[in-house]
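Lecture notes, unit on binding sites. The following record was shown on slide 14. It pairs a sequence with coenzyme A.
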Amino acid sequence: MHLPCLICPPPTAISGLIKCNFILMLRIRKFGYKDAKEVSRIIKECYLKLKIGGHTKKGINSQIDWNSPENLVSRSKNIKYWVAVDNNEVVGICGYDDKKVHTLFVDLKKHKKGIGKKLLSKILNEAKKDGLITIKTWSTFYAESFYNSFGFVTKKKLYLPEGTKDVILIKMEKDLRQLTTVFNKNIIKK
Ligand SMILES: CC(C)(COP(=O)(O)OP(=O)(O)OC[C@H]1O[C@@H](n2cnc3c(N)ncnc32)[C@H](O)[C@@H]1OP(=O)(O)O)[C@@H](O)C(=O)NCCC(=O)NCCS
């Protein structure tokens, strides 16, 4: 139940309830090993509760295993991961290496509040600073249009593991020379 907020601009009435548009501070910082458990939980919940598309049950389980806390820690030696933190609580993750954007996930409870946009903007800006000219990603069906809105172009479908259809992802690519989106404000909609 949303309560009226005395600080915000006029609240919006939704289905008879009052929705509060209170604004919170969001911080993007580097991933640390202590974040792995919560990040793994966020990813697992997205796979189990969203209609992410392109995954069989076996494929979903393989992705959950791939994103166990231990595997995230191990991959963080090669992938530069960043996390979004709201009020000391980790609410999202994204990373990159010299080729790809990896593991963009936002806590299900916090979707559509601008967190994914802020994380991906940070990653693209960091990758550009590191000298990358283009960057790829292997998107879920669910996130394809989100990546399109950042200028990623759809290339082709990928069938993983090779020869099966357990996981179908979409190979996408962005030219970082066209990167103009910069989000400086640490503000999200609650
Ligand atoms: C994709 C994802 C990271 C987006 O995170 P989010 O915090 O909800 O996104 P934002 O609130 O920053 O959304 C920014 C904009 O994209 C839109 N958007 C958000 N999710 C979207 C989606 N799945 N498809 C299309 N548009 C989307 C929002 O409406 C918003 O539009 P606006 O700026 O016009 O208001 C999140 O939905 C997620 O975790 N998905 C599951 C995991 C996944 O599939 N990740 C990709 C792995 S490669």
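Take-home: The radius of gyration is 17 Å.
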